[in-house]
Amino acid sequence: MAVGERDAHTGHMTTGHEWNGIKELNTPVPKPVYFFLAATALFSVVYWLLMPAWPTGSSYTKGLLGIDQRQTVAEKLAAASLDRASWTARIAGESFEAIRADPQLMTIVRETGHTLFGDNCAACHGAKAAGGPGYPNLAEASWLWGGSPEAIEETIRVGINSAHPDTRVSQMPAFGRDQILDRDRILEVVAYVRSLSPSGEPAADAGVLAAGRQVFLENCASCHGESGAGNTEFGAPDLTDGSWIHGGSLDAVFRAVYGGQQGLMPAWEGRLSPLDRKMLVLYLLDLRSTEN
Amino acid sequence: MVSQLTLGERQGALCILLLLAACGLLMLGAGQNDPLGVHGGIVMLFGVLLIFVVISGYFAPEPGTDAAGRYYDDPSKVGIVLAMLWAVAGFFIGDWVAWLLVYPEMTFDAAWSSFGRLRPVHTTSVIFGFGGNALIATSFHVLQRTTRARLPDQLSPWFVLLGYNLFCLLAVSGYLIGITQSKEYAEPEWYADIWLVVVWVVYFLIYMRTLARRKEPHIYVANWYYMAFILVVAILHIVNNLAIPVSFAGAKSYSLFAGVQDAMTQWWYGHNAVAFFLTAGFLGMMYYYLPKRADRPIFSYRLSIISFWGITFMYMWAGSHHLHYTALPQWVQTLGMTFSVMLLVPSWASAGNALMTLNGAWHKVRDDATLRFMMMAAIFYGISTFEGSFMAIRPVNSLSHYTDWTIGHVHAGAMGWVALITFGSFYAVVPWLWKREAMYSARLVEVHFWFALAGTLVYVFAMWNSGITQGLMWRTYSEGGTLTYSFIDSLVAMHPYYFARAVGGLLFLIGALVGGYNIWMTIRTAEGVKPEVLADLPAPAAARQASTGR
Ligand code: HEC
Ligand code: HEC
């Protein structure tokens, strides 16, 4: 075996082993390494003694502190709901009017409603409830199914065209695709419908509008109402308020009438508690009153 | 390259490739109405293409007998080039998905370009494509030098290198067309997994056969790390990928494990992939190229061995720290956490050992960007292992888990440690392998260093900020006792950090492009004048050369 030599820089000997020019330097393992190894091992042993740690066949060592993560979670949840009990009972029990008149409760509704809405509804209705293509604006537009707290609460509970047995059902027929109206009639009624709300565009020819109005009265008024202001019994939208679910451009309105629409709003019963749903109703109503 | 093979090896190669192409054809036929068919096509094309390569050199004269007196480096050379190609591709996709998080609408409404499909393309390209090729290439180089033995034959290294790249190719192409096992870092389906097992066993055998023929009495520490990498990755890969294919004519399979057992197996795999692929293998790299480049012995060889066993033993237990506060029984979490804490000691011992090795060579670190790459890698190794042990502590984890902090941590390791040590090693080994005086441009190495460092720092700081912000937002309660922020709120708060991260990634990518160009130009410049270093030759040839004074 080769003999070691002294490394000039560190003063340690080499062992004589060498690999492709890399010599083995015989530096002892620095003491702190052993110290920290011992310290972390000691920490681990103490932790094992205190906490659930080692398996023992069908069970495990429970630890001196008797801590169990499931129990900890259950306790924390119980404590948290106890914390909230002061106001949850009131919101669950009191009437919409009473709650809305109570600024303290409404502060909680605003804070909690913001998170509830953000986590469950914003994906479709937008972070500010202003809607988007295919999804109604909940902050401003006239209500499809009525603006009473109870109506909104019901919509959220059962959804629209959802899988819930009590779901609200609505459908805008496909007048073009199903050949109920021909293309010219549709163009007339579309022009008429668009004239019901301010669009910023020059009004269509009076003759066309008159023809369109005729088509409307014959085909559409049953759902959308004679004036086009909608009907909350069928969830038919107000066509005069300037707010559109599917867009107000000529193209978008034409598509709605030609191909029909059937939006899907999920049911939240079973997914959100009655309390959460009630808070969402309050949140939406409050959003509207502060916006306007 | 083919001309270096003996006639027997050329014939062997043709047999294997024909078999491979036939397998591809079989898959193509069986999987006609399944994504498996697409993969059959890829396998067949891969085989046929290589058959042409072999045939084109088939009739070249056989190499002389003196070839046996030299190390066999062709696979290492090709491996390095492949690693750089995967690096650039992988960083590019990585930066793409980073921008996708800033501008989520950037998907062209196509399935392949969705985040869920592109992300594994990025991770597989960088970890397995870049990292794996770098490990295979350098392991062959280091193994021969430190054992003074030539690789046992010339065919099996090619089988490993090219077979491995076929696996990577199947993996990333599969994600794009929707093939995945949905196991992070183990996404490829059953047939690709089986193929990797075959490749990996051959890899292991090459290592054992070469070691058996070694001329050095002792096995150098780098080889211990490389061997641990090869052996343990084989075990991890096989166990975690145990699955039953729905049909042999289809790509889909179902894992043998379910529920929390599946999660535990997956993270036992996942964390040990970090340990043995991204740590042990690259430590092997570091323990050879760093002392070579610094021209210093390892500060404490003994410490390197102790660290080796510490890392090997303790990492095995740590995987459950990925499942804190889940359905996983708490005692398993306890073990994962405590072993992660103890793991810090051998990890820091390795990082410290590397840095102390530079004592007496700090002037070189100042002047030589290549060595600085390696030094910086050791520092990032220290940072990310500290961070890892810290995040494994349950209460810390309750803040960090599911946040971008994890992403920052993993990139401190991946960019700061794995990529920097690889670039440093490449800049050292490329001139040696191609017999050049030095890299084409030292300035460009310097440029790459600063781009890589800046990119890593920007990335990691952005994700630290983002992660901690997220973690805090998710646990902020209003006075009423309900959560203050919705998830969307936290997402909005991430936006500036995601932007910064994408910029950091871009810097890193630019650095890699500079590096790739520099390596390419080094290869292309005229044959260097570097004389063959005696120590660079296997024993028989070295002895002959010394005695004849040639
Ligand atoms: C999957 C998308 C989606 C989600 C999530 C969603 N909605 Fe809706 N919602 C709709 C659609 C679509 C409509 C309109 C249906 C139609 O056009 O007839 C609607 C309608 C409504 C209406 C009726 C509006 C009116 O004018 O009468 C209310 C109220 C409502 N949503 C509340 C909510 C609340 C509260 C949540 C969260 C708990 C929520 N939505 C989540 C899609 C969604
Ligand atoms: C059976 C009842 C019914 C009839 C008849 C009906 N609609 Fe509708 N209409 C609806 C409902 C319900 C919606 C909401 C669809 C949705 O969003 O899911 C709607 C939506 C629309 C919209 C889109 C509103 C928006 O905000 O984007 C337009 C435009 C419209 N209807 C026009 C017409 C016209 C024009 C006719 C007659 C040719 C007509 N409707 C007849 C029920 C009806």
Structure description:
The complex is a heterodimer of chains A (292) and B (550). Chain A is mostly helical. Chain A contains 11 helices and 4 strands, in the order ββαββαααααααααα. Among the domains of chain A are: 67 residues, no CATH class; 89 residues, Orthogonal Bundle (Cytochrome Bc1 Complex, Chain D, domain 2), CATH 1.10.760. In chain A, the strands form 2 sheets. Chain A has a two-stranded antiparallel sheet with strand order 1-2. A two-stranded antiparallel sheet of chain A has the order 3-4. In chain A, β3 and β4 form a beta hairpin. The model of chain A has no long low-confidence stretch (mean pLDDT 93). Chain B is built from 17 helices and 2 strands. Chain B is globular, with a radius of gyration of 24 Å. The interface between A and B is large, with 54 and 53 residues. Bound molecules: heme C (HEC) (2 copies). The site of one heme C has 24 residues of chain A, from α5 and α6.
Helix content of chain A: 40-55%
Structural class by sheet pairing and helices of chain B: mainly alpha
Mean pLDDT of chain A: 93
Order of helices and strands of chain B: HHHHHHHEEHHHHHHHHHH
Q: Beta-strand level of the residues of chain A, as a percent range?
A: under 5%
Q: In CATH terms, what is the fold-level topology of the domain at 171-259 in chain A?
A: Cytochrome Bc1 Complex, Chain D, domain 2
Bound molecules: heme C
User: Can you count the helices of chain A?
Assistant: 11
Q: Mind telling me the CATH superfamily name of the domain at 171-259 in chain A? A: Cytochrome c-like domain
Number of H/I helices of chain B? 17
What general form of chain B does the structure show?
globular
| Biggest protein-protein contact in the assembly | A-B, 54 and 53 residues
Give, in order, the helices and strands of chain A. Answer: EEHEEHHHHHHHHHH
Helix content of chain B: over 70%
Q: Give the oligomeric state of the chains in this entry, treating copies of one chain as homo and distinct chains as hetero.
A: heterodimer
Mean pLDDT score of chain B: 94
Name given to the CATH architecture of the domain at 171-259 in chain A:
Orthogonal Bundle
What kind of sheet is the major sheet of chain A? Answer: 2 strands, antiparallel
Number of E-type strands of chain B: 2
CATH topology of the largest domain in chain B: Cytochrome C Oxidase, Chain A
How far is the N terminus from the C terminus of chain B? 26 Å
